[in-house]
Write the structure tokens for this entry.
Amino acid sequence: MQWNELFNKDNQPSENQVKDYIGTPLWDDLDDYLKQTYNVKPKSSYSNCAMDGGMWKGWNIKYQKSGKSLCTVYPKQGYFLLLLQVGLHDMNEAELLMPLCTEYTQTLFNQAQSGHVGKFLAFDIKNESTLSDVKNLVTIRAKRR
């Protein structure tokens, strides 16, 4: 069953329900990393967005530092999707990091369109290598927060 079908707008999932649905230790790794490294608390938020076949609809988890987003997580069964903005001020540092990243991350970065606020990258977090890339990009983002 899809995430947004299990937990509608009036049925906010608990932290344990999020963890159980995602069902991978990579989630615990990211959650612990963000909480401990940046002293942030996750916030659940509901989105009605139906773009891309409704992949953004439902409850998501936002991590913010000083009122600015570090990343947003969308639970999927067996993995999670992580949305990360690489701001214009962070672009040079992110470009320097890219040769050290996985091919998957490099492809996402190169294919993302640049806008007036930078690039938005949507990662399917299914392995430790991708998670490591994301942590490094979050570190760049957090420096300005």
Remarks:
- Residues 3-142 form one domain.
- The chain has a mean pLDDT of 92.
- The CA atoms of residues 89 and 118 lie 8 Å apart.
